[in-house]
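STRUCTURE REQUEST FORM
Protein name: Elongation factor 4
Source organism: Xylanimonas oleitrophica
Requested output: structure tokens
Priority: standard
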Amino acid sequence: MPIPGPALQARIEPNATAPELIRNFCIIAHIDHGKSTLADRMLQLTGVVEPRAMRAQYLDRMDIERERGITIKSQAVRMPWQVDDEAYALNMIDTPGHVDFTYEVSRSLAACEGAVLLVDAAQGIEAQTLANLYLAMENDLEIIPVLNKIDLPAAQPEKYAEEIGNLVGVDPSEVLKVSGKTGEGVEALLDRIVQRIPAPVGDAGAPARAMIFDSVYDIYRGVVTYVRVVDGSLNPRERIAMMSTGATHELLEIGVISPEPIPTKGIGVGEVGYLITGVKDVRQSKVGDTVTNSAKPAKEALGGYEDPKPMVFSGLYPIDGSDYPVLREALDKLKLNDAALNYEPETSVALGFGFRVGFLGLLHLEIVRERLEREFNLDLISTAPNVIYDVDLEDRTTVRVTNPSEFPGGKIREVREPVVRATILTPSEFVGTVMGLCTDRRGTMLGMDYLSEDRVELRYTLPLAEIVFDFFDQLKSRTRGYASLDYEPTGDQAADLVKVDILLQGDKVDAFSAIVHKDKAYDYGVQMTAKLKELIPRQQFEVPIQAAVGARVIARETIRAIRKDVLAKCYGGDISRKRKLLEKQKEGKKRMKTIGSVEVPKDAFIAALSSDSAGKDAKEKKK
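Status: completed
Returned output:
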């Protein structure tokens, strides 16, 4: 029986909640399998959100999340639930489903004892379902398999219950069937969470130890830190210390999220809550750090998280150079909210001052750029994304290249590129198409398994550079949207890679350089020169656009000069007079070409470095 809203404050008081009455769990699933909708029903059933305040995707706080219908940030919420006259406190974390945000999922799993594995009853197990399940198993979590969307006409609950049962190792009859939309089966799921997920274990009398699993920046209150208490307890007005930095602060406020912040008298073993110290410096609260009492500090810190390794690098530059300090401050604040973000300053001859930013994937890049533009009112240019390469030179030195402009000249012994192990789940009718796509992208097949009569799992080793651009789009279009992809880094391999430079009037433009496979260098050169010819306005003199590998030009386009009609005033008369005027104009053009410089407008940079659709928009603007 759910507890009504008015009783909430009494139930929330952590001093009244013993560790054996706490259940910490998260919801994991493939993208678009209904995690946020199921979380909405749980919030309604437990009474923590009043009916008049309820809205779809309640825990998705950002506009981008609501517009795109995806979860980007994990959100923790505390809910009361009563079983057999015993009041329990359920700490739920709603996690993202996209492969780019796996780091968010891994941090959530470390703060829980159990996980609800959610599978769409109309689509079955997909690639990210498997990836998240393996992550949960690595953390020794109790897994509760659940089929969602059983109200859909296309749902096949019996078929997919057997599939999940075989995967998790349970009887298909134990797989719960729920509908996040109608609320059917959600009460039984909450009861199962209380029965199956173990209570948190910790020493209440030991010095306080709490793991920071997330942080956000509040413009009025400073850094808000989210923690999971493992040992001891944290109370208001006591001094706390961060064990990695040694910084000490006074706890101004402590409480739980239910789902709005509710201040409490403290939080104890196994509880999840938030801390506010009034600190404005975003570097003071590091995800993975351990919080302890500064008067009675713990001897050992808790095991933190592995630092995420950026998979894709791109340069971010403000269109207005005076916005550089604003961009730096914005990245600092976003880093607090997104621990997977890495960045360092860099300069470009063409674009000025900016930052080289590391991302976990293309969607991560797109989301970060959109958040910077929306939340901090910035106009940005992002350079073409690229991965890290290790270049071995003849003198046995190794250069790490994160930007094509860093690619060394001279004699190169070997270039190594990162590779990933990709898992693709697809209907059996598209196996040939998917194999063809992977072969085109220099993939090596590792194996193939039939999960059922009509669903196949393909495993490939692929160069990361081949999948960060449009591989996912191509996979979806070739399989009519049915295939799903997950990948994880597996090291590097030697490859025949070259740097393609774009030259305007003989001068290299570093922003357009790219590192590509030797077989695709010509295609890239032809494509980029043709695009720039359309985007750069005509000058008073002829401008050659060239693509070159080293000293060898592999493609060329020419922007014709704007010619002034110098013969307009010559009517009749001797031909030698006309010839004299044309020769004079020719000399002037030649002189102009030697002293003139080609100005590339910002619109051309934006269009050339972004997708084809953005390029078309810029061309329309130019016209």
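Reviewer notes: The CA atoms of residues 149 and 307 lie 35 Å apart. The two ends are 66 Å apart (CA to CA).
Form closed.
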